[in-house]
């Protein structure tokens, strides 16, 4: 569908329009007085969110990100679904599932009481069935206001249950990783993927001074990133999720990623809302499952 047709069907005067982004991908631009946001229809991916009055974007987006069919965009909120991490069946399918690297459909846009809502989605096709033989409707509901609400909705349209794991693989902008803490996970058990997946317990807040790749289990629904350099706290309130991933690649891995600048590891931290590890969700035939997060900024 062309940008002109998308605007005819879904633009909202004074709030939302479609533009052609890098790689020719359709981009949704929201500016509703409460916040600005950009959303890529490719990948169903929020790329930026900046509440009015905030000097810095809440989302990190790499200047070297790929904008090409078959590639994931490095930054914002990539979607991992219907599995998080490596192929759970060991069949060699792509890590993090089906959704990060394909074009979605615009289901609807609307001016709502607290801001602007965008719903993007995908249903199963012959292509997805060949990779993952399940019948589904999958959507992301995004509400841009002074907060950012993002919810993943899985509908099983088949006649048998299927298991999923999933994540909002969110990249948050921070002023300086050396002045950043992740609060709310003290005393929580986690799998340390940097140390062979060993299970450990978190002591106090998380400070990052080397590579971190941890899957936290049975987490509380409220986490906070204390962004000391920018003088703000980023709050993440999750629903339908008891798993969180904290990731920063640090210097060596960042230097080896072509879609990251060598120093980008100092400028972001991923705190991901997820169903992962031992939190596998069985979606019954004919039912739906919702997982999401509300992201806000306080000072």
Automatic annotation (TrEMBL):
The answer to whether UniProt assigns keyword Isomerase to this entry is yes
The organism of origin for this protein: Romeriopsis navalis LEGE 11480
Enumerate the catalysed reactions: alpha-D-glucose 6-phosphate = beta-D-glucose 6-phosphate
Q: Does the keyword Isomerase apply?
A: yes
Name the record gives this protein: Putative glucose-6-phosphate 1-epimerase
Q: Which UniProt keywords apply?
A: Isomerase
Q: Which residues form the active site?
A: 169, 272
EC numbers on record:
5.1.3.15
Q: Which GO terms describe its biological process?
A: carbohydrate metabolic process
Q: Which GO terms describe its molecular function?
A: carbohydrate binding; glucose-6-phosphate 1-epimerase activity
Q: Which Gene3D superfamilies match?
A: 2.70.98.10
The entry sums up its family as follows: Belongs to the glucose-6-phosphate 1-epimerase family.
Instruction: Extract the Pfam families matched here.
Output: Aldose_epim
Q: Which domain of life is it from?
A: Bacteria
Q: Which InterPro entries match?
A: Aldose_1/G6P_1-epimerase, G6P_1-epimerase, Gal_mutarotase_sf_dom, GH-type_carb-bd
């Amino acid at each position: 569908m062309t940008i002109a047709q998308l605007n005819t069907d879904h633009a909202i005067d004074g709030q939302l329009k479609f533009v052609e982004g890098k790689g020719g991908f359709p981009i949704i631009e929201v500016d509703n007085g409460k916040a600005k946001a950009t959303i890529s229809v490719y990948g169903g991916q929020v790329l930026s969110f900046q509440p009015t009055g905030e000097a810095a974007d809440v989302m990190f987006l790499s200047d070297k990100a790929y904008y090409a069919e078959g590639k994931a965009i490095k930054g914002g909120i990539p979607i991992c679904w219907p599995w998080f991490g490596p192929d759970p069946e060991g069949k060699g399918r792509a890590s993090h599932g089906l959704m990060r690297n394909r074009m979605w459909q615009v289901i609807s846009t609307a001016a709502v009481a607290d801001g602007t809502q965008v719903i993007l989605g995908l249903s199963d096709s012959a292509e997805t069935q060949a990779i993952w033989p399940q019948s589904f409707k999958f959507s992301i509901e995004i509400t841009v206001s002074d907060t950012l609400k993002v919810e993943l909705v899985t509908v099983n349209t088949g006649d048998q249950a299927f298991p999923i794991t999933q994540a909002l693989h969110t990249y948050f902008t921070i002023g300086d990783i050396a002045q950043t803490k992740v609060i709310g996970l003290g005393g929580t058990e986690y799998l340390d993927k940097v140390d062979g997946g060993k299970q450990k317990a978190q002591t106090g807040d998380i400070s990052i001074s080397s590579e971190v790749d941890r899957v936290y289990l049975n987490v509380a629904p409220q986490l906070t990133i204390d962004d000391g350099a920018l003088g703000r706290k980023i709050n993440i309130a999750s629903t339908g999720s008891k798993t969180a991933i904290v990731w920063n690649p640090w210097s060596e891995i960042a230097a080896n990623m072509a879609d990251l600048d060598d120093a980008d590891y100092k400028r972001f931290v991923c705190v991901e809302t997820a169903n992962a590890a031992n939190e596998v969700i069985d979606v019954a035939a004919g039912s739906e499952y919702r997982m999401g997060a509300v992201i806000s900024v306080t000072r």
